[in-house]
Amino acid sequence: MGRQSLAEFFFEYSRHGDNIAFTGHRGYRTNRWSYQQIAAGARRFAREMEGRHIGKGDAVLVWAENSPEWAIVFWGCLLRGAVVVPIDRISTLDFSSRVAQQVSAKMLIHSQGIPAADLNIPHLAVESLFDTIAHHSGAEYPSQQLSRQDILEIVFTSGTTAEPRGVVITHGNVLANIEPLEREIKKYLRYERIFHPLRFLNLLPLSHVFGQMLALFVAPILGANTIFLESLKPAELLETIRKERVSVLIAVPRLIESLQREIERQMEGEGRIEKFRKDFEASEKEHFFLRWWRFRRIHKRLGWKFWAFISGGAALPASTESFWNRLGYAVIQGYGLTETTSLISLNHPFRSDKGSIGKLFPGLEMKVDGSGEILVRGENIAAGYWSARSLQPVVGEDGWFRTGDLAEVDEQGRLFFKGRQKNVIVTPAGMKIYPQDLERALREQPGVMDSVVIGLERDGNAEPCAVLLLDNQTVDAGIIVQNANKSLAEFQQMRQWVVWPDRDFPRTPTQKPLLPRIREFAAAKL
Fold this sequence. Notes:
This protein is an alpha/beta fold. The protein has a nine-stranded mixed β-sheet. A four-stranded parallel β-sheet has the order 4-3-5-6, with helices on both faces. The protein has a four-stranded antiparallel β-sheet with strand order 7-8-18-19. Helix 3 packs across helix 4, helix 7 crosses helix 9 (209-222) and helix 10 (234-243) packs across helix 11 (253-269). The protein starts with 5 loop residues before the first helix and ends with a helix.
């Protein structure tokens, strides 16, 4: 019989005892927490909430950056039956205030620098959490009576201008994702002993469910060490991977792309770029082990234990996936939304398919409608939307959830992401242009750091417009677009373009470009 709540899964932490669960880098300090310490800390925090009369169903805001203390707060809330409400670290005070009002928050856990006092609710800084709860007992805590239907957390995903709308995640939603992963992982645990301990460098925010899934739930199944890092500078990331003997990097596609550019920059600085490019071409059809040996200098640079990337939050460009595959690394892509508790499909780490976002996750049903939109249903679909203190349905007719995403499915059941339905550009001839195809062609051009393709309305019709982020403002953008068009069909041709004036696009916490602001700039520029 399956678990009735995540309180039963929490015993995984005690089972791993003194194994390191989390490593947190804060300034020049490095803190390491064992599984037993995390478990004891969670029990202490549950007792702290009990003393503050915070109980089952009460909301606790967590507005903080990734840290071991974040995990303690999460599990402490779970033991107490309180509802976790994670807030992105970069969220505005106005947005957080409206969220706090919607959920009637009883407490705020925050990082230093957050304007906590302005929210006018009891608050506690994560930096002083350990000292605050140290006087409580870390012994077993009698957790609340919980079921798969009880609310675990409410994740607010809307922007700062619209009324916040939270996705309600239950214990059953998360367990529906954990249980199939456990069954598959157990097949390989005997091999894991050879490489133990696995170390995950997790750069996905814990305020998002995919970051939580890997750091809070998958890692304890393996007894792995999850490492958090404040800096996202490519050179420092590469150094941390080597120094901490990281096994797997978990990041959004943009960071994985930036590491590719850093490797190429280092090769160029050492005068080895031409040889690297020749080796890269020669390795295209070589066996995995031959490629690994050919690029052994890079493997030494990243550390001999490092072997894989897990990409989430957006689709990884095919050229980046191919780059790391060619060097002898595994690249694992997952696809999902907050409403699906992070996972719809997942690539198998030992049977990955190039360009695919994986096969349907066990326990889910999926279909693709006539327009190409993905519809799914199953226990991991969120319980509803929390808006204006009421619960609204996520699913539609017959329990199907419309993702708003477009994909193709091949004969083997592999999904190939095509983009967001709302971003599809329809030409005057009725042809559909998927911006992702055009962006891929642009990113392959020398000098292009990133690109966004948007549809601009002209006399009732839409035309694709390229917005380019260049590494050198003197590069001829017109030539770039012209060369990209050579690989595109006639109806996909871009005839308008603008160059983004800043060093980077405005982005979401998961590093996706903020399309409304980019579209507004392009429309004004043209």
